[in-house]
Design a protein that fits this description.
It is a single chain. With 450 residues, this protein is α+β, with helices and mostly antiparallel strands. The chain has four domains: 36-130, Thrombin, subunit H; 151-243, Trypsin-like serine proteases (Thrombin, subunit H, Beta Barrel); 252-345, PDZ domain (Pdz3 Domain), CATH 2.30.42.10; 368-447, PDZ domain (Pdz3 Domain), CATH 2.30.42. The chain is built from seven helices and 27 strands. The strands form five sheets. Strands 21, 22, 23, 24, 25, 26 and 27 form a seven-stranded antiparallel β-sheet that branches. Strand 16 and strand 17 (305-306) form a beta hairpin. The longest helix is centred in the N-terminal third of the chain and has 32 residues, at 2-33.
Length: 450
Amino acid sequence: MKFFAILILMVSQVYSSVLSDFQKESNSIVESTRKSVVSVKVSKEGYASVVEPEFYFGYMIPEEKIYKYKIGGIGSGVIISEDGYVVTNYHVIEEADEINIEMLENNRKMSYTAKYVGGEEKLDIAILKINSKRKFPYLSFSTSPVQVGDIVFAIGYPFGFKQTYTMGIVSSKNVSLKVEGKAYNDLIQTDAAINQGNSGGPLVNIKGEIAGINSAIYSPSGAFAGVGFSIPSWRVREVVDEIIYKKTPERGWLGISLIPTDLIMRKVMLSDVPKGGIINKVYDGSPAKKAGLKRGDIIISIDNDDVENDEDLVNRIYYKKPGDKVSVSYIRDGKKYAVDVVLGSRPQNSEIELSQAKTNNKEENKDLYYNFNGLSIRYRDNGAYVYKVMPDSPLKNYFKEGDIIVGVNNKKFSDFNSMVSAFKGADISEGVLFDIIRDGEPFYLSVQVK
């Protein structure tokens, strides 16, 4: 009995010692990081039009007046260099006219102006520069990937209050989600409390290094509900290298552009999947073209992550390198397919040649005319040229003169008769998918007019 009493006493002493050491380590992390975490306060000008009465010689005359006002916003940030570069979220400073940085110095609050120097809106990362020549305390990015179970601290200024620290663990990693329309990928999930105003602040590891940038919470009420997310440090560091140090990263390139699908598009393309982005362009010489992807295919996922539009596409492959392989799932003619595509290098020239079907010129001098719901159409070179839109046409808000219709409900034109047949089979009250060219650019247009 005496032995067990001694053993319990020894265990309690060891446990107390471990807790004491952990407490000291936590205090050390706070002390080494608190001066580098800042509050980001922004303002932008807004305008309001108000009609007010004015009196002239006893008569009341309404007069419009324009009032200017300022809208404020708050967030957090972290200094990453001694010359005053700050990382925060793009949504914190978006459309800001003025940016102010507040920080602690010798237990006093100091304020500096700052300017936006660059960033990546799609990744929700912004880089600011404090307008000062002094040297600032800063934090370094972690070079080691986080692991599930790692202890982390979320630092920031929630709701504009004083600087706060919350502790938790890495609950998951490589998480994808959408918050307020923004797509996020490869996120770190943590149970450390992240509230409004924490956006842009750092998630630090037990070494006091930046493991991520706090970016989003998932909660029906907007307040913390046990799930917070951070952009991993390796992603942020690549943007920093590109913006500040002018290093050009190698980006993988698939070579397509997408537009979101709607019910009409999915119906015409025989897709039973309530999501996906339809390929609007395929570029010549691109990996997508080499893999057999075609305009009109509906991309539903890349590496099993859902894709609905160009933003999703960019996020899925943004940090892939040339030579990386991705699995593309798509729908063609109502059937699901998957293909592995080896990404190429993004061309430097901004003018990328589009893959276009070769024009059949056998009727190049022969014009034939047709009218479809108030659209006066001239058939030529396998296309229906819109040369006039009648004022009472139900399609007047969708088409303009000069548009070229090259397909109706996924039916292409080989001659005048096939064009007429396609239009006769189209009912705008049921919904019609038009494949058109406007100002030299092809795109899909779905129309339904009851």
